[in-house]
Write a structure and sequence with these properties.
With about 350 residues, the protein is of the alpha/beta class. An eight-stranded parallel β-sheet has the order 1-9-8-6-5-4-3-2. It has a three-stranded antiparallel β-sheet with strand order 7-11-10, with no helix packed on it. It catalyses: 3 propionate 3-nitronate + 3 O2 + H2O = 3 3-oxopropanoate + 2 nitrate + nitrite + H2O2 + 3 H(+). GO terms for molecular function: dioxygenase activity; nitronate monooxygenase activity; nucleotide binding.
């Protein structure tokens, strides 16, 4: 299915914007140069840091790319619950010889300043996580020539995205690694998300927007499946996390296929919001007690995660990964795009021969 989005790049392959230093300019450039859509992650960066990465990326490729922003979060956390969790993490701070972070370090992620940068220096594509920009913001971005996408995890959220005026919706299945992009954080719904194929089919019947499918996709045959279900492109995160250009620490890349890490789980342990990662010691010990408090818990654990990464201790890191992590391939990003495109072509040929594609 063609759309104004997929007209920007030859292959229906989008590299997910992975915050925390994974989606570096080199990764986005390699993906875009190979015919996919590379993405920068502005989350947890300053507006100037985002701008500098955009400038660097533009120096590496003249092809289209995207930038992802986190939406500001409402204040709903219980300060007492955050304080209790901080006491629980005191032993971790002692173990890693560091201090816990300040949970009140800010909750808007510099959103307004980053929007201003994008409007002054338009990029081809912008996407949004954890909510929906205002209709006025989406219209301003459109006037600036920026194609907009917003993550949705339910058909109802997708309908809200369409009403707001976004150009396309990212359908994020529960299989996806990293943070679930739910518009509201509802603890009683933890783990109740829809699987990707079901979600794409339901969103396809709910909205007329182009759909980018995200969640656990690691092979070209899976891309073919979501395209057949009604998506115009597939977004892959964990698959690109393992590539040579990814900014993820080596210990994180290696953990994806390490037999010590046999499964993933949605957890609030590291950030206070549901996010899928490899089950390690930290997740097991603290996940059951972590409060619904984002970004307070994210700020609280940031020094712990940084210290664990510096010590190359996979048991204390946030090892974000989708359910397909064992299928990760140690390849240059451009080569992975080419391989995925070849697998997609083979899958389409096989389906066509069986009468499965019309």
């Amino acid at each position: 299915m063609s759309s104004a989005l997929t007209d920007l790049f030859p292959h229906p392959i989008v590299q997910a914007p992975m915050a925390g230093g994974v989606s570096v300019p080199q990764l986005a450039a390699a993906v875009s140069e190979a015919g996919g859509l590379g993405f920068l992650a502005a989350g947890y960066k300053t507006a100037d840091g985002m701008y500098q990465e955009i400038k660097q990326l533009r120096g590496l490729t003249g092809r289209p790319f995207g930038v992802n922003l986190f939406m500001p979060q409402p204040e709903y956390a219980d300060p007492a619950a955050v304080e209790v969790y901080a006491h629980q993490l005191a032993g971790e701070a002692g173990w890693y010889d560091t201090e816990l972070g300040d949970p009140d370090s800010g909750r808007d992620d510099g959103y307004d300043a980053k929007l201003a940068v994008l409007l002054d220096n338009p990029v081809p594509v912008a996407s949004f996580h954890f909510g929906i920009p205002s209709a006025e913001t989406l219209e301003s971005l459109r006037r600036a020539g920026i194609f907009t996408l917003v993550t949705a995890t339910t058909p109802e959220e997708a309908l809200a995205v369409q009403y707001a005026g976004a150009d396309a919706v990212i359908a994020q299945g529960v299989e996806a690694g990293g943070h679930q992009g739910t518009h509201r954080d509802i603890p009683e719904q933890d783990g109740s998300g829809l699987g990707l194929l079901s979600l794409v089919a339901q969103i396809r019947e709910t909205v007329t927007l182009p759909i980018v499918a995200a969640g656990g996709i690691m092979r070209g045959s899976q891309i073919a499946a979501v395209l057949a279900a009604g998506a115009c492109a597939a977004q892959l995160g964990t698959a690109f996390l393992a590539t040579h250009e990814s900014g993820a620490p080596d210990v994180h890349k290696q953990a994806l296929t390490n037999p010590l890490f046999v499964r993933t789980e949605l957890t609030r342990a590291f950030s206070g919001r549901p996010a899928r990662g490899l089950v390690n010691r930290f997740l097991r010990e603290h996940g059951p007690y972590a409060p619904a408090a984002y970004p307070e818990v994210h700020h609280l654990t940031a020094p712990l995660r940084k210290a664990a990464a510096k010590a190359k201790d996979a048991q204390g890191m946030a090892l974000w990964a989708g359910q397909g992590h064992r299928m990760a391939r140690d390849l240059p990003a451009g080569q992975l795009v080419e391989l995925l495109a070849a697998e997609l072509a083979d899958a389409r040929t096989a389906l066509s021969a069986k009468g499965g594609l019309r």
